[in-house]
Design brief:
It is built from 3 helices and 14 strands. The protein is mostly beta strands.
């Protein structure tokens, strides 16, 4: 079983908070550390393209800056049916049909403390190189781990689906995995 971390491909523009409204970045961080809860009826966030990205393409299907919130194109959302069960956030984005989902699945007992490279501080872990312990029968396509709640991990199925459908904007880095 292969597992990957995902980040946004730096060829594409990034999304940042719109200064006029509440910060999605702050909210996403609080969600990651279970300091708040999602209220999809009242919460509303506005994001814009990063003004520093003038020369980059605006055609990305994925935006990962707000992890564990993943912003994606409607096309990617429709194509990747396994994302459709994730909680959604209401957003205003440069593309009117972008979708924001909260990667709510957090695995416990999946972090290999002996093989991973990390520091433990008073407020939690700083993980430099995660090594995961997962049984081969795991079925999650996208998840987080308790020790690094802002990192997004995906399965081979997720990677293959993105690549076979020609969706753009993600970089995949394989994570060492064992049982």
């Amino acid at each position: 079983m292969k597992i990957y971390t995902i980040t946004q491909d730096d060829k594409y523009k990034t999304l940042v908070d719109d200064e006029k409204v509440e910060s999605l970045q702050e909210f996403a961080t609080k969600l990651a550390f279970r300091e708040t809860h999602l209220n999809s009826e009242s919460d509303f966030y506005s994001v814009t393209y990063n003004s520093d990205d003038k020369k980059k393409k605006a055609l990305s299907d994925f935006y990962t800056y707000f992890r564990p919130v993943l912003i994606l194109s409607k096309t990617a959302y429709d194509e990747l049916v396994f994302l459709q069960g994730l909680p959604r956030l209401r957003i205003s984005s440069p593309r009117a049909d972008d979708v924001a989902v909260f990667v709510s699945t957090v695995l416990t007992k999946a972090f290999d403390y002996e093989k991973s490279d990390y520091d433990k501080g008073p407020s939690g872990y700083v993980v430099y190189r995660p090594v995961l312990k997962l049984s081969p029968d795991r079925t999650e396509t996208i998840f987080r781990i308790a020790e690094s709640p802002q990192s997004l991990f995906v399965s081979q199925l997720f990677k293959d689906s993105v690549e076979s459908k020609g969706l753009k904007g993600l970089k995949f880095r394989e994570v060492e995995c064992g049982i």
